[in-house]
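Subject: two folds for Thursday's group meeting

Dear M.,

Sorry for the delay on this. The cluster queue was jammed most of the week, so I only got both jobs back this morning. I'm pasting them in the order they finished. Each block is the input sequence followed by the predicted structure tokens. Could you check whether the formatting survives your parser before we put anything on slides? The first protein is the one we discussed after the seminar.
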Amino acid sequence: MKQFLGRKTFAFLCSGVLLANMFFSAGASLHAQAFDPAIYRGRRDRLAALAKEGIVVVQSIPENQKGVTEFFIEHSDNHDFIYLTGLDLKEGALLLLPKSSEYPEVLFVPRDQIPRAQAVSGVKTVLPAENLDVLLSEALTDVSLKRYTERMKKPVSTEMARILSLSAKKEFYLNYPRFLNLDAEPQSSVRLGEKLKDFSPDVEIRNATPLLTNLRVRHDKAEVEMIEKAVHVGSVGLIAAMKACKPGAYDYQIDALAESEFKNLGASGLAYPSLIYISPFGRKVQPLSASELQSSSEPMSALHQMESGDFIMLDAGAEYQHYATDLSRMVPVSGKFSDEERQSYEPVLAAHHAAIAEIRPGATFKQINDAAVRELKKRNLDQYFTFGTSHFIGMDGHDPGNYDEPLEPGMILTVEPGFIESDKNIVVHVEDMVLVTDQGHRILSESVPIEIADVEKLLSQR
């Protein structure tokens, strides 16, 4: 999903959020992750080691924050919970007690989900979700006040109280939202933090989200293998969409085809609303008025049907096992790049290759972006490059991560240079997903044709 979305597509994308939420909710439970429970246990152990003390509480929520357009699928704000448990639930909470050997982890889920939750997550102590507030209340009661019989009958909350008594403050790490909307109702973690502080002056609230970001940005071997499967699904769907860009085709037909291909290969659906931009190289277009632009799903014009001479930017991603793909390609509808299309495409392709060449452990996002800009500047196109070259990708299309830190092996990022020349109704943009390796990098989406000769060969097979 691109970072160059302007006001003219904002209304469309907001409606896309609602449509995507309605669409994806029906099948979310059918596409749960399939890692070995030991993978989730290892993630929880690493999070506990980062927290070191107190109690870590990672909750799921019924719905995303309204008005936050960074994410476009229903369970995005639950990805931290899914990452640690493998469970796609709207009602769930994971508690980690880093200093406990008896109950290092406790999971709360709906009562009918307990057997499944134990099997999928590998957590031994799984309790009904409605017990969470009761146990937290008991945990906040000083352990020295608990009678012997109470300690025997309530071992979990007693152990929680003991852990909280090990420091002067009762420390809780909560998974606060990464992106904030102060006009919306507070999410469950925010409400829990307020409640804990209201009932006990000794409580100290800390944010567990930066710790989770630190984990999620560094993908282990099993996770990379899963993401490679997701990229395969996304690549096959994008290739099918490229081949379908013919004279007479409509953008919504291409969108539907890509989504259908994704699902046929096991995806739950789209990772974000697809973006299909038609650059009319071979025809004049009447510019939209300011009011029309506000309600249009097109970036520059009201074009929907493709003609020979058009240059199409396809940006479509699949969500597979809760991992997102984000890929894009340029397609000449005629099947051959015209001279004008080549002149626009070749600088972007050069910028793309230059940026990828910079990817290695220790490199920075700034270095990658600067490499792309240098190439675009050779053709005076840098002035139209209004979006960033790269972003992290994983469970979210724009995955969390610190863009000021040097790259490390296991990180996955997009490379997506391009330009938007509004006065000519031109959008040129390509995008791949790249894994940082010990030796340098590996392009995960290299099966999707990107060189001019390869794109033309693919289109000749239509």
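Second protein, same layout:
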Amino acid sequence: MSIILVVDDHGVYRAGLRGVLEARFPHSRVVEAPTLSCVGSNKLFDLILIDSGSLSYETLDLLAEFHEVRPATRVAVMLTSKARNDVLNYLSAGFHGVVHKLQSDEELLTAVSDLLSGRIYVPGWVADTHDEDLDRPTHSHIQRETLKLTSRQNEVLNLLARGMSNKEIARELNIAEGTSKIHTAALLRALGARNRTEAAFMAAKLVRSNEMERRSNDESTAIRRTRPKPFK
């Protein structure tokens, strides 16, 4: 059973979000609190959704304590800003995702599902937003096939998309950390990413795109198999 913590100083929003999450994830338990300090740091949570307005030096210290107690805890920021730089800054700070508070229920549930499964979540509109100060285009339409990655690099790409560090990737794949760094550096070059945060974002988008394409192909195959033969 997954345990989700919602931190927001607006009680109505917390209650509404709790209702939506409990309806979609019946085997999960949702805990809500107006501030993070109201929750004991010894509590174990799989996911913490915290309003950006609740962030302070105190809450960041508390989040670090939560992570020490349970390193697998995922933390995502909820915000109302639609500035691309704000999203990238939160990811750079180490958060596992950014959830826009005004997005649809379905998008919100997709975000929570991705976060619980270990992925980094970034709102879809971020990839469609073009900041004028970016000095080169984003590679939003890159396909895995065009990257020509080795099997090992494909494995690293999947783990990078989940927000893993080089040390975590090395442990997961049973390779040396130095080897993990080499593969990650090669992926940054292949993706055309300027830093690890941008690479993780692009990898997550690429993995999600490939999963959607695979599902679409599976559904098309299933339809063809179940389609009745035409009368002669």
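Two things I noticed about the second structure. The CA atoms of residues 50 and 101 lie 11 Å apart. The radius of gyration is 20 Å.

Cheers,
T.
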